[in-house]
């Protein structure tokens, strides 16, 4: 029994020694906790360093993206401003009301004639012919050429605008000098005038001569009216109106000598032709050009009193 107790005590002592040596071999609890805290701080510092670098990188990307977006917005704004302010490649001015007013106030626009204004009719959206208002016709006649022509037509006769490139001197010749010569020529060949010259005329001969003279004058007046209708620019084709416009350009920009080779005349003629062609293309989209040329060359068959 004593031997059994001794063995049991020796096991207990050896067990206690083993626990003591194990605890001595293991690090203390305070050291383990401090070591764990140190590791935790290092990991936190590392994570903070990693998070800061990620935030810094995303901030740089965002700044670059916003800067790039601002540059693109400015570029698009400049493009829109350029598109809204640049002139039309054909007309040479903007197509907005301000640009149109620039053309309307130019010297060239004030002297050339528009076909619709000359003819007194224009097409509406449905293709029907409607009359041009009196205000539009009056506005188109506010130029030096039409003002002078109106005075000459009132004093001499003939239409407001002459066709075939005729000017004021031709008006004087055709509507004043020629009728006077025709009346004089016919009266000089009259038998009644010979009777009056011979001094053998009686009251009946005088009455016959006066009647014949009035008849000749009436016939010449009718002839003058017929000639006025023939020479009226309203009966001209589109090319006839173009000839009149070029004549006006030469008279206005060519100087006293009507120099057709001057830069002013050449530039004005080219500008007018370009605008005229542009107007044709806009009004006749899809129409065959040969058919369009035939229509432009055809004479207008309207009869103006």
From TrEMBL:
Transmembrane segments: none annotated. Residues 59-69 have a biased composition (Basic residues). Keywords: Ribonucleoprotein, Ribosomal protein. Gene3D superfamilies: S15/NS1, RNA-binding. Residues 50-70 are annotated as: Disordered. GO terms for molecular function: structural constituent of ribosome. InterPro entries: Ribosomal_uS15, Ribosomal_uS15_bac-type, uS15_NS1_RNA-bd_sf. The keyword Glycosyltransferase does not apply. The keyword Phosphoprotein does not apply. GO terms for biological process: translation. Pfam families: Ribosomal_S15. One of its GO terms (cellular component) is ribonucleoprotein complex. Belongs to the universal ribosomal protein uS15 family. PANTHER family: RIBOSOMAL PROTEIN S15, BACTERIAL AND ORGANELLAR, SMALL RIBOSOMAL SUBUNIT PROTEIN US15M. This is Uncharacterized protein. It comes from Sporisorium scitamineum.
